[in-house]
């Protein structure tokens, strides 16, 4: 295992410290327990947004803390859910009195721990709504999940619900926007290589030199099947087809096309995938109105990508375009 | 070789096509020959900025085309200089009558081909100035270079000279700002793994499982020496020390600290490197006033990073903060 780390057990702590040092005007890093808040949290009158999950998916979630997106992020150990004793103070810090929306990727540990924290927060008088993200069409249940996993769509839920909170929507309205994004986004991913969890020290699974895993999860958990290596257009078709079918994309639909890198794949390759996906959507008569290409929800140094398609309407498009100022997404500010 | 590509010989063409499809409102992709221009180029009255070089370093350079940065980018084949017949039309397209600055990384092929293109452009009545970037302190001469190589500092030259052009500086003044950034920035990098050029099909060099290359170039060309794997703090010290010594950083200096990923290293690890580098600078009494962390000038899927330090003054800081709207850097717009 060759990684730019010191003590494998200190990876999250030191990485979060470095993140805080790099963005001192944007975020505050709290330790013991660890969570990251927007510098100006809580923002008076605004619904708070909190997300979190296992580390190793950076920039998700801390990289999305800031104006127009999250008020707080809660990183667990690598690929391990954060605990309620982290999520609770993050929730309290995000609450200005207007309540807090938890955005939770559908993994059993995350769901349970956010649920516990929500109950504790309610007991302290904070209203909490939960948006469960489950956009992965690859598998119905999986290693860590009952039901579909939450993957790339999480980034879009956080951006768009964040914009709804920023414009002043109330608690139920922000949660409803988040639910609507989740209902209109689907994702599927592929791994060309495994990744290595630092405290484990060995790759989380084995892939032969000529083999890829279609429908991979963001923790390297199994997807639909392993197949021999194919070219980018073939792989893109295998990912996009189930996404479009499940979403029922038809001629005239407007969409946001999101090609996400898993961490170890060059941007140049993501553009080759984007090219094919855009061509397929155009052939279907759909209009790609917005795009996002890059490493936004990763699996450490895994090579591979995921493709997300979000069906847009005028409101979602407007909320996507609204100003955002975070470490990983920024425009209009 | 597992890559998300189709025909290895079509990698640059298809990637650039995908890039154009992802950012239709930002850039225009010209083919035969291939170059990328800002959608609204040439911008009346503004000095044009053109850069380019071998592909495989994405988002550099096409990802920096747009308001406040480059007017055109010229991608060569992977790790291969673009040709004068590409650079010339890009230069003409960037020229609004105020002349064009070429920002050239110091590699022999790039220098020669940009020089030829500059002469051809001058013959067509376009004034051209060249800013040569040579910020790499690792080696004096190298495989592809007489003198120091141009690496991470290039991103900072393009951003800051781009802002000078955008505020209306004339041709000599924009070039002078670019020279001043180059004079005040130094960089050194490390590789934990090699990368594979698609049309070659095998790794560009060999590194043992317990070995890293200090002072690596962005094409995998040799650096200073190979050493056994170390922890992140140790590696950071090895990169930062020569940078600070060469730049003569002393107590009271204000700097921009740029930790750049080589393409295959997770963001979480870059933050661990940033943490140490920020601590060392603080111990020296220097103030890290601005930061940049991420994959901005890469070597395909190479694992590793580079550290750049730019000595700031009020003018350079103001130009850094000025609005920018490109695929890879965006704020204020």
UniProtKB/TrEMBL annotation, chains A, B:
PROSITE patterns: DHAK. It catalyses: dihydroxyacetone + phosphoenolpyruvate = dihydroxyacetone phosphate + pyruvate. Keywords: Glycerol metabolism, Kinase, Transferase. It holds the Pfam family Dak1. Residues 7-331 form the DhaK domain. Pathway: Polyol metabolism; glycerol degradation. GO terms for molecular function: glycerone kinase activity; phosphoenolpyruvate-glycerone phosphotransferase activity. GO terms for biological process: glycerol catabolic process. Homodimer. The dihydroxyacetone kinase complex is composed of a homodimer of DhaM, a homodimer of DhaK and the subunit DhaL. This is phosphoenolpyruvate--glycerone phosphotransferase. It comes from Pseudarthrobacter oxydans.
């Amino acid at each position: 295992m060759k990684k730019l780390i010191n003590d494998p057990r200190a990876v999250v702590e030191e990485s979060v410290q470095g993140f805080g040092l790099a963005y001192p005007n944007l975020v505050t890093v709290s330790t013991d327990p660890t969570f990251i808040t927007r510098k100006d949290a809580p923002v008076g009158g605004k619904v708070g947004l909190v997300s979190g999950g296992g580390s190793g998916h950076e920039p998700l979630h801390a990289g999305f803390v800031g104006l127009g997106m999250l008020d707080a992020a809660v990183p667990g150990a690598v690929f391990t859910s954060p605990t309620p004793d982290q999520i609770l103070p993050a929730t309290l810090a995000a609450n200005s009195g207007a309540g807090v929306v938890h955005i939770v990727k559908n993994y059993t540990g995350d769901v349970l721990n956010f649920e516990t924290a929500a109950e504790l927060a309610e007991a302290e008088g904070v209203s909490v709504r939960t948006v469960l993200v489950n956009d992965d069409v690859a598998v119905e249940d999986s290693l860590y999940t009952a039901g579909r996993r939450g993957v790339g769509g999480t980034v879009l839920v956080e951006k768009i619900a964040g914009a709804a909170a920023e414009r002043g929507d109330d608690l139920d309205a922000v949660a409803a926007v988040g639910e609507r994004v989740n209902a209109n986004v689907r994702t599927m991913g592929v791994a060309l290589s495994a990744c290595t969890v630092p405290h484990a020290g060995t790759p989380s699974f084995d892939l032969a030199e000529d083999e890829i895993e279609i429908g991979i999860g963001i923790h390297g958990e199994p997807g639909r099947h392993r197949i021999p290596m194919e070219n980018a257009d073939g792989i893109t078709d295998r990912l996009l087809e189930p996404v479009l079918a499940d979403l029922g994309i038809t001629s005239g639909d407007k969409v946001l096309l999101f090609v996400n890198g898993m961490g170890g794949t060059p941007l140049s390759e993501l553009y080759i995938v984007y090219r094919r996906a855009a061509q397929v959507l155009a052939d279907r008569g759909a209009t790609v109105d917005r795009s996002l290409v890059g490493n936004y929800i990763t699996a450490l140094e895994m090579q591979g990508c995921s493709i997300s398609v979000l069906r847009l309407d005028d409101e979602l498009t407007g909320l996507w375009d609204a100003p955002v100022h975070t470490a990983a997404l920024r425009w209009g500010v």
